[in-house]
Design a protein that fits this description.
mainly alpha, 19 helices
Length: 460
C-alpha cells in the first residue's frame, strides 16, 4: 500500500522526530521488558530448586553474555549499514547487507555449538569446585549453547525489521518468545502436565524453545512484510567488502559486550572468594537490573536506525533532535530504576526466596550499584550514537576503560579490605569515569562528523 511512497522517502526521514522515536522505540521497549521479565522468571523458578541452582545459572552469565555479544554486535553492524544504505537510496547494498547478515548469524551459531560441546565443563571448573553447582551449570549452559540457532535467527531477522522502521513486529516476535519461555519454565523445571521433572535443564529447554519460535516468526514476517529488504541466497558468495563494513561498526559492539562477559567472570571470581551466596547476589542483580536497562536498550534499538538514516540522508537537525530526546527519556528511566533499587531492595530479593545471608549481602549491593544508574542513561545513548555514526570504536574504548581498566581492578582492591559490601562501590566509581570519557568523545565526534552533516548533500 505504501510501497511507492517508501521508495521516495522512508518515514525515518519525514515523520516528526518525537513521534517517530516513540513509535519505533516503544514496541522495542515493551518487548525488551518482556524479555527482562522472562530472564527474572527463569531465575525465580530456578531459585525454588535451591541456592546452588541459582548460583549455577548466575555463573553461566559470562558465557551467555558472550553469545549475545556476538549476535547483538553483528546485528548492530547490519542495522547501521542497512539504515544508512536505505537513507542513501542504495537498495542493492541494503539487500547484500541483509543476505550477508544472515550468513554471519549461521557462522555465529556454529561457533557456539562448538562452545556448548567442548567449553562449558572447563568454564565452570574455572569458577567453582562445588560438584552440584558444576553439574547444574553444565545441564543449563550446554543446552543454551548447542541450541542457540533460534537466538541467532531471532537476532538477524529482527534487525532487518528494525532497520526499516518495522519495530512493532519485533515486539511481537520477542514478546511471543518470552511468553512461551515463561509458560514452559515451571512445566519443564517441576514436571507438570505429565512432562518429566527436568530441573535446571528444563529452564534451558524452555529458553531455547522460546528463541526458536521467535526466530521462525521473525523470518516469516520478514518474508511477508519487509518489502524494502530482500534476502536472496541464489548464487550467494560471502562478500568480504560488505562483511567488513558490517564489522567496522559491529566488532566494537561485540568487543564492548564481550568485555561485559569478562567483567562478570572476573566479578564472579572475586565474589566466590567470600561465598557462593555473593555470586548468587551478583546474578540476581543482573537479572533485576535488566528490568531497568532493557527499556533503555529498546529505546536505543529504535534510535539507532533513525540516527543512521538521517546521517545517510544528510539531515543534521533530525539527527540531533533524536539524540537529545533519547538522552532525556533514558535518564528518566534510569532515575526511576535508581529509586526502585533504593526503596524496595528487600521486596526485590524476596522474589528469589532469599535467605537472611543473601539479604544481608544483597540489600547493600543494590543500593550501592544503583547509584551508577544516575549516570548510565547518558552514556548508553551516546555510545549508540557513536555506533550509528560509524564510530563504534569510541563506545568500545569507553566500555574497556569502564569495565576492565576501572571496575574490575577497583573491585579487586576493595575486596582486599575484607568486606564484600565494599566491592559494590566499584560500579558507581567506574560509571563516573565512563561519563567523563563519553563527554570527551561526544565533543570530538561533534566536531569531526556531526558539524559537517549535510554540507555536501544536495538537498533536503
Amino acid at each position: 500500500m505504501e510501497q511507492g511512497a517508501i521508495k521516495e522517502e522512508n518515514k525515518m526521514g519525514v515523520m516528526p522526530v518525537n513521534k517517530l522515536l516513540i513509535s519505533m522505540s516503544f514496541p522495542m521497549m515493551v518487548s525488551m521488558l518482556v524479555q527482562a521479565l522472562y530472564n527474572i522468571v527463569d531465575s525465580v523458578f530456578v531459585s525454588r530448586i535451591n541456592e546452588n541452582a541459582l548460583t549455577a545459572v548466575s555463573l553461566a552469565f559470562p558465557l551467555q553474555t558472550l553469545m549475545i555479544a556476538l549476535g547483538g554486535g553483528t546485528g548492530v553492524g547490519i542495522n547501521a549499514m542497512l539504515s544508512k544504505s536505505l537513507g542513501e537510496k542504495d537498495f542493492d547494498k541494503a539487500n547484500k547487507a541483509a543476505t550477508n547478515g544472515v550468513f554471519l548469524a549461521a557462522v555465529s551459531y556454529i561457533i557456539f555449538l562448538l562452545v556448548g560441546l567442548f567449553v562449558v565443563k572447563p568454564f565452570y571448573a574455572s569458577q567453582t569446585t562445588d560438584a552440584q553447582i558444576m553439574e547444574y551449570g553444565y545441564q543449563y549452559l550446554s543446552v543454551v549453547c548447542c541450541f542457540s540457532f533460534g537466538m541467532y535467527a531471532q537476532f538477524v531477522f529482527e534487525k532487518l525489521l528494525q532497520s526499516t522502521g518495522k519495530t512493532f513486529y519485533t515486539m511481537l516476535t520477542q514478546g511471543t518468545g518470552a511468553i512461551i519461555n515463561i509458560i514452559l519454565d515451571p512445566i519443564f523445571i517441576f514436571g507438570y502436565f505429565g512432562v518429566p521433572k527436568m530441573g535446571v535443564a528444563g529452564a534451558a529447554i524452555a529458553t531455547v524453545i522460546g528463541q526458536i519460535v521467535a526466530g521462525i516468526m521473525a523470518f516469516i514476517i520478514n518474508q511477508k512484510v519487509n518489502k524494502e529488504v530482500h534476502v536472496n541466497f541464489k548464487g550467494f558468495k560471502p562478500d568480504k567488502r560488505i562483511i567488513g563494513q558490517i564489522y567496522i561498526v559491529g566488532i566494537p559492539s561485540i568487543i564492548m559486550q564481550s568485555i561485559g562477559s569478562v567483567m562478570t567472570y572476573g566479578m564472579n571470581r572475586i565474589l566466590m572468594v567470600f561465598t557462593s551466596t555473593a555470586a548468587a547476589v551478583f546474578g540476581v542483580y543482573f537479572k533485576l537490573q535488566s528490568f531497568i536497562f532493557m527499556p533503555v536498550f529498546g529505546l536505543n534499538n529504535g534510535m539507532v536506525p533513525i540516527v543512521a538514516y538521517n546521517y545517510g540522508a544528510g539531515k543534521k537537525d533530525r539527527l540531533l533532535k533524536t539524540e537529545k530526546l533519547s538522552i532525556m527519556y533514558a535518564v528518566c528511566i534510569m532515575f526511576v530504576g535508581f529509586l526502585v533499587f533504593q526503596i524496595f531492595p528487600t521486596q526485590l530479593f524476596a522474589l528469589f526466596d532469599a535467605s537472611e545471608t543473601m539479604l544481608s549481602i544483597g540489600i547493600p549491593a543494590l543500593r550501592a550499584i544503583s547509584i551508577s544508574f544516575l549516570l548510565a542513561g547518558f552514556c548508553i545513548i551516546e555510545g549508540s550514537v557513536f555506533q550509528a555514526l560509524g564510530n563504534g570504536v569510541y563506545s568500545m574504548l569507553v566500555s574497556i576503560a569502564r569495565q576492565l581498566v576501572v571496575l574490575l581492578p577497583v573491585a579487586y582492591l576493595l575486596a582486599k579490605l575484607g568486606n564484600v559490601n565494599y566491592v559494590w562501590w566499584a560500579f558507581p566509581i567506574a560509571e563516573l569515569m565512563s561519563l567523563t570519557l563519553t563527554i570527551i568523545f561526544r565533543i570530538k565526534i561533534g566536531k569531526k562528523i556531526i558539524r559537517h552533516i549535510g554540507e555536501t548533500t544536495i538537498e533536503s
